[in-house]
Amino acid sequence: MAIVINPINPVAFSVFGLPIRWYALAYIMGFVIGYYLFKYLIRRDTSRINLTNKQLDDLLTYVVLGVILGGRLGYVLFYNLPFFIVHPLEIFAVWHGGMSFHGGLIGVILAAFLFTKKQHFPDTSLTRNSFRILDILSVVAPIGLFLGRIANFINMEVMGRATNSPFGIIFNGVPEYDYPRHPSPLYEATLEGIVLFIIMWLLYTKTKLRNQPGAISGLLGMFYAIFRIFCEQFRQPDAQIGFLTSWGLTLGQTLSGIMFITGAIIFICATHTKK
């Protein structure tokens, strides 16, 4: 027996006639919560890297730009380039959805390195300082992933494949979803959000890996890739792409496979390189 629910209005509320969408609120909440958690963690252990309040504010700006620009450009380039070539103005219509985690990740990595390059830390290594920042961001990132996937569910996007499972969801009155589908955004919110946050929090606060710049970042890449590859088994691939192979490989799994390998290389280098 499938679960039948009424669609949730993607517009949370309006301010002077301007619609404020849950999708936008998810990003705002993710940045705000992430900022204060990052600040808490960096103040908890200033021996690794210490940032002033102004530097923290500047870093937030870099990260926001990295997430939004990287996530959007990643979606444009990886998932729907032919459409955006024909409709270039749609690139800026982020309220329609369409953000790539893998693109956002690349954007954040570049943002961290650009930010670090402009600072004057006692340790002059650009790579070590950048990964010290990225390691803490790796603990924070699952919060944004969780909120983003909840927003995906509200928007009824990146939904799952047809299923006879009792977890199947039918959106009442929506022809496209008038048969049971896996609520894959909720699966991803659970694994890539809640479970991944617990893992990264424990790794950072309870192990000595935090003393090896890049180790936590590499593990984030590996764990996220595993969870994403698993969840893609239930997620309907984008209509404009479909499956990449006859046996069901998706673009998300391919990008996550590359991410796993990259994360493993970063982890190995971090744990086998002397300061």
Task: Write out key terms for the chains shown.
two-stranded antiparallel sheet, 4 strands, 275 residues, 8 helices, mainly alpha, two-stranded parallel ribbon
Can you tell me about this structure?
This protein has 275 residues and is mainly alpha-helical. It has one domain (3-272). The chain has eight helices and four strands. A hairpin with a 2-residue loop joins strand 2 (11-15) and strand 3. Helix 5 runs antiparallel to helix 6 (184-206) and helix 5 runs parallel beside helix 7 (215-231). The protein is globular, with a radius of gyration of 19 Å. The mean pLDDT is 91.
In short:
This protein has 275 residues and is mostly helical. The protein contains eight helices and four strands; from the N terminus they run E-E-E-H-H-H-H-H-E-H-H-H. The longest helix is centred in the middle third of the chain and has 29 residues.
Topology overview:
Blueprint: E1 3-5, E2 11-15, E3 18-21, H1 22-44, H2 53-79, H3 81-86, H4 101-117, H5 126-154, E4 169-171, H6 184-206, H7 215-231, H8 251-272
Parallel strand pairs: 1-4
Antiparallel strand pairs: 2-3
Helix pairs in contact: 1-5, 2-4, 4-5, 5-6, 5-7, 6-7, 7-8
- Count helical runs: 8
Beta-sheet strand percentage? 5-15%
Query: In total, how many domains does the architecture comprise?
Result: 1
Specify Rg, calculated over alpha carbons.
Answer: 19 Å
Total count of strands? 4
Shape, per Cα inertia axes: globular
Largest sheet: 2 strands, parallel
Contiguous low-pLDDT stretches (5 residues minimum) are none
Spatial ordering of strands, largest sheet:
1-4
Structural class: mainly alpha
Distance between the termini: 58 Å
Query: Which percent bin holds the helix content?
Result: 55-70%
Element-by-element helix/strand order: EEEHHHHHEHHH
Instruction: Give the overall average pLDDT.
Output: 91
